[in-house]
Amino acid sequence: MASTAATQYLKAVTDQAWSRSQFGAEAKCNYVTNNISESFNASINKARGLSIIEMVDMIRHKMMERMDHRRAFGRKWRGKLVPKVFKYVQTLKDIEQYIVRRSDDHRAEVVGPDITCVVRLDERTCSCRVWQVSGLPCVYVATFITRLRGLDICDFVHQFYSLDVFRKSYAHAIGPMPSIDIGFMLMFHLLSALQKL
C-alpha cells in the first residue's frame, strides 16, 4: 500500500525529477545517481587542506592518470560496444515468451507478459521509452530485431556506448607539468643573471 505522505510529496515535485519514464531522451544513461560527485569528493578529501594551487595540481594528477587508465582499457577491448553494454545486449536473447505482430519491416507490436509495446526501428522508439531514455534496446526492441533476418542488435545501441566513442572520449591527454619548485628555481637563476649584468 502506498504511503499517503510519500504520494503527496511526489505529486508536489515535478515528474521529471523523480520518474524515470518522464526523463528527457537527449542524455543517454541507464541509471541516475550522485555517485560521481561522491567519488570525486572522496578522492580530493586529502587535497582540501592544501593551497588552491596544490589542490588543483592534485586533481590534475588524478585526472591525468584516470584518462591514461581508460585509454589503456579502450586499447584492449574489441568489438563494437563497451564490454558492459555488450554483456547487457547478450542478456536480451531469452525472448521466447514475447509475440511479434509486424506491421512492416520497421514497425511492430510486441506483446510481452504484462504489456504490449509499439516498436519503430526507423524512429528508434519503443512505447515503453526505455530505448529512447537509455539508448539501450529494451526487450521489446530486441524481440523484434531478432525476428528480422540479417540485423545485429548491436547496431541499435546508441553510439554513446560504442567503443569508438569511448576511445574518442579519452583520446586527449592531460599534459604533464614540472613541479612549481622548478618555476621558482628558474626565476631565481634569471634574477641572479640579471643582477650580474
UniProtKB/TrEMBL annotation:
The keyword Thylakoid does not apply. PANTHER family: POLYPROTEIN, PUTATIVE-RELATED (PTHR31973). GO terms for molecular function: zinc ion binding. The keyword Plastid does not apply. It comes from Acorus gramineus. This is Zinc finger PMZ-type domain-containing protein. It holds the Pfam family SWIM. It comes from the Eukaryota. Keywords: Metal-binding, Zinc, Zinc-finger.
